[in-house]
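Service request form, structural biology core

Requester: graduate student, group of Dr. S.
Request type: structure prediction, single chain
Budget code: on file
Notes: please return the result as structure tokens.

Sequence provided:
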Amino acid sequence: MKAPYSWLTEWVKIPWGAPELGTRLTMAGIEMEALTLAAPPFSGVVVAEILAAEPHPQADKLRVCRVSTGSGPPLQIVCGASNARAGLKSALASVGAHLPGDLAIKAAKLWGVESQGMLASAKELGLAEASSGILELPPDAPLGRSLREYLDLDEAVLDLNVTPNRGDVLSILGVAREVAALAGTKVTGPGIARASAGHAERFPVKLEAPAACPRFAGCILRGVDNRAAVPLWMRERLRRAGVRSISPVVDVTNYVMLELGQPMHAYDLRKLKGGIRVRLARDGEHVMLLDGKTIEAQSDMLLITDAERAVGLAGVMGGLHTAVSAETSDVFLESAYFAPNAVLGRARRLGLQTDASQRFERGVDFALQGRAIERAIALLAPIAGGTAGPIEVTDSAAHLPKRPPVTLRRKQLGRLLGASLPDDRVQHTLEGLEMQTTPRADGWEVTPPSYRFDIAIEADLIEEVARIVGFEAIPEADALEPQRFRPLPEERPAEESMLAVLAQRGYQEAITYAFVDPALQERLFPDRPALALSNPIASDLSVMRVSLWPGLLRAALENQHRQQDRIRLFEHGTRFQIDGASTREIDTLAAVVSGARLPEQWGVPKEMRGAADFYDAKSDLEALFTATGQAESFKFEAGSHSALHTGRAARVLRCGREVGWIGELHPILVQALDFTYPPVLFELDVDSALAVKRPAYQEISRFPQVRRDLAVVVDESVTLSTLAERVTLAASNLLRGLRIFDVYRGPGLEHGRKSVALGLIFQDISRTLTDDDVERIMASVVADLREKLNARIRE
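Core staff response, request fulfilled:
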């Protein structure tokens, strides 16, 4: 919502400048995202008048103009605009002027004719995205005056981020109400008088879906000149609020929408057949909208129809067949109230987002429709003339929203705020928000105004008091009640310590959306069904994630595109797994590793900074497993995964149960996503993978350890974890440690075999082990390895 400062001052007296106003609105819950000027910087542009415009002797499309600035001799300007004509006042950028885009104006010769400046268009001045000619100013524009001063182009424009529950603030009037409440003043605004009807014609309206449209106001205007020039002040206000000027009728309806918050629509009366009917669509019914697209309406969509066809999608966009044009002289103005539930999501379902739908979805003041038409007539008559008939309001009182009173208890207000406020201050604050208050013994009975759809319960009123009084005005106080902390289950790891392990190893935490690109997720997990969003914010964020990998890969790509050559990202979040008819949320930890193994540094040789691989990420995982206190319970088992490189992927097992995956991204995906280095990914189910075994007391032996080294030759297919598992099972409980200190392949060994050197450490808690004890255990280990793994002892 863009609110020009001068427009606000028409409705309320503002005791602060624009920056201070933005800060106060932000503290009151209406965030100011930006504070900009009404136009980009430019200098040296003044109001000038074209005294004469003659054809260029050497170029048919150019004209040689004599231009006066009100002082000094006229200037000769060569201009190619089709609207350059004698008597027109326009914007002259004289020699030495600087325009947006670093354009400096210099004297020049165009086809042999000297030009002493440039007559500027709105686009060249940054006042429009496109323009068909030079800027046209009113006849009373003062010659020689700086254009920035004349049009007040240094005016501040507040860009406000309005929360979804505050649809009433999507208007100048709504913002003015907030300012009045904060400043303790009253909303005044321009007077809107009910004009007397110039004729008695009425257009019939029938509400066939009164629950969806309980009120519809209309008025017939005849003799409108829709070719008339829209005043510069209105065009400028619309532009500063982010709306393009089109024609008198359309501009006035847009102006009223921005000013009062009531969307309006204008029909060419001659194109309407019979009366207006507001009804739900029939399946398969088609409507051609103003943007030229034909949509197929669904049965829950509300349509505006005449006797022959649908002429608009209610609350979203009007139809093309009955749109006003330059030839339109008779207009039917519409100002309706559509229930939010009847409009919510319909526009987005069709790939549309309009100013009207944005307001109707959040709730429009249901008492505003007649007033909006009165304001539109008052604005349009001086511009385009015409005669207005009576304003006809068709409504269904039983279906209009109700505003039941809400009880505010003094005790509850003090409990939630943590401070006691005087009764008169509370009542003054609520009345400043145009709420009706009735004092009671324990507090107040408060009736919200018709435009406040967000006030329904006591907590809403307490929030209103807090934000208007000011959070900074509420004193800090220690809680009077004891704090009770829920116990952390013994086996559940503390999140801070779990994430600190990865942070200490060079990772940075990422937070990505829980909804992801369906195309990317389908490529990573083609066999996993995903939960689709019924109302996504974007087409590439339309399904819930079945893994944290899609978001992390997108984040890694964004970093790579910004010249980051070493990426370590992790995320702790929820993924969503569909189990039959239900969806299960799984607490998950995932990470992506890409780029150099070590940071660039003079003490690290270049060959040691190669790209990180599977084993670098595996070592990070093992650091996490060590923190569980049961590192020996984990095992990596080669496996096949749709997203990972075959032969460079492994299941992560804990006590034989799958708890995660690790591996290098599949080469096809690396190429498709345009990664410089193949990323390595891992993902764990937090509850099962990182459950902690708390340390327990164990007596330390006073007796010496005994170590025996053993070199065994096994098949290449035998993994080190399998070998260690067999040794542990075959040895007695006297085995205190097992170290693998060498792996050899080469001369002296059969093809497809490898030699593994093991260090076995034995110790007893009650005595010193003898050589016989140790030899007996070693013999048992050797026998088991020969039988189970086809191993032989290497001498």
